[in-house]
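User:
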Amino acid sequence: MIYLDYQATTPLAPEARDAMLPFLDAKFGNPHSAHRLGREAAATVEVARQRVAALMPAGGSVSFTSGATEALNWAIKGTDGPIVTIATEHAAVLDTVRAEAALGREVRILPVAPSGLVDLDLAEAAIVSGTGLVAVMLVNNEIGVMQPVEALARLAHRAGALLLCDAVQGYGRVPVPEACDLVAISAHKIHGPKGIGALWLRDGVTLVPLLHGGGQEAAGRSGTLAPMLCAGFGVAAALMAARAEEDRAHVERLWHIARRRIGPEWAINGSAEQRYHGNLNIRRKGVDAARLMSSLREIAFSAGSACASGSGRPSHVLKAIGLGDAEARSSIRLGFGRYTSEEEIDRAATMILDVGSRQAMWTA
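Assistant: Predicted structure:
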């Protein structure tokens, strides 16, 4: 199978798998225990923490979580004051801020242009003095567009607010902006294991705990950590740092091959310039994305976020950039990266072009 769904999850790096295996056997200690097995496990956790933090801004600390969804919930629910966010954010942000709104917290959700980018003048008008939190995604998980996080952070700080960045899709691939106060990330989007993520907090930022119990993490997160998952996360992060230039150059080659092969009949959704090139979200009139995926079972790709794949509703991101239902349902997302070959991109493009052209001809 040709795997082109890197925004949903990434293949586990062999090095991360090797780092995890000992913790299924002899290294089974609880990292919060005081004996030798516990201390060895705790040391593994701290090495992983340093590796994950190395790709973050200076002057902060990493708290491990069960994933980015928990990290985002913690960051949002652990702060107070009005929230400003963007209509194309992940459901882990939008559903959480709506839950906070139901409890009486003020929420302002900003629209985006057809490019998928927020208008900074609208943002400035919404991020007023007294705002508590501004939540923005670094790289959109559906269309790959990169928001102006640094500019939004300046507006947030001028208003006395914190800036929360959902960096799940960008961490390790593009720099995390220095101005962030809170950053949520996930291991399985960087060739690490599922079931672990992290929240980075700038020094001096405090949050009300989301989970109560032992308070094992310094920032207030409770729960026994899994050294196996931490080890895999740490190695995956270290590989992202060590292979940064190699991975970036490889993704650029794949992007140019895909764009050249797909051709002008397929339009890019969102900005063609201000985006991460490992995400190609495209549409063609007359194509039914669900039927296309059903016809191309030897390719793993998607019609949008894996988190909303069973809803049957058009993507809220594609709707937010102004696409109608038919256009949204004719859109597909191709995600690729480190372990995708140039030959796989070429073969996948040939198959998508063939089946897509036949669909478009039948519906013309």
